Amino acid sequence: MRHITGTARLICAVVVAGALLAGCGLLGGTKDGKGAVAGMDMQGAAERADGMFYATVGEIKPEIEWVHYTTTTGSCDVTRYWTVMTVVSEQRRGNFLGVVERFWKASDYRIEMVNPSKDLPTIIATSPDGFGIQVKFGYKGQAFFEVTSPCVEKSKVAGPKRAANGRTYEGEVPTPNVRSDFWSAESSVPDPTPSP
Questions:
Q1: Which of 1, 65, 69, 142 has minimal CB crowding within 10 Å?
Q2: Is 78's pLDDT higher than 60?
Q3: Are 130 and 124 a contacting pair, CB within 8 Å?
Q4: DSSP code of residue 165
Q5: Largest separation between any pair of C-alpha atoms in the chain
């Protein structure tokens, strides 16, 4: 079948971008020519991932509530995940993503993909040292962050040192349940009134 729908093209783009980010060092970051970032092991990569996330959410004002989700490791890479517990309304998701994208661009991250989907918008980027970072909205409008390292030296990986800024949950993390006067508002952000 020759005709490919816009949805199919979008799915293909998401799959390709995801594969690139998940791949061990496929987006650069191989500093020593041997497939590893010079002098960095998985623990160092996890700490770098944490720092990228903390810097990103530090730019989101008013503050959002988030929790650590999990850490996974591959043969030579590590991925950290976080879940946003603040309810970000459909009307405010564009503002939320705009803050994140502007900060990433200001940090010299290369924007790999922007999916402007109304229900499941996503931004995927790569840092100058080859770490893949993404923010996406999923079920019930819950936002998720993910950072994947390039290929690094194998090592054990400890959990994040910083405590989440929200409450802790036993078992599965629920859908977003923290209301924000700004982020949860079901109205668009008003345009600033021009000065006379």
A1: 1
A2: yes
A3: no
A4: S
A5: 61
Query: Which has the higher per-residue pLDDT, 35 or 181?
Result: 181
Give the pLDDT of residue 10.
Answer: 39
Residue 65, both tokens: 């509530």
Encoding tokens for residue 94? Answer: 């564009």
Tokens of 124: 């995927």
- Nearest residue to 35 (alpha-carbon basis) of 77, 79, 73: 77
Query: What are 29's two structure tokens?
Result: 């970051």
Q: CA-CA distance, 177 to 57, in Å (whole number)?
A: 18
Q: Which long-range contacts (CB under 8 A, 24 or more apart) does 82-85 make?
A: 82/53, 82/57, 82/144, 82/145, 82/146, 83/142, 83/143, 83/144, 83/173, 84/142, 84/143, 84/144, 84/145, 84/176, 85/166, 85/167, 85/173, 85/174, 85/176, 85/177, 85/178
Token duo for residue 145: 């962050």
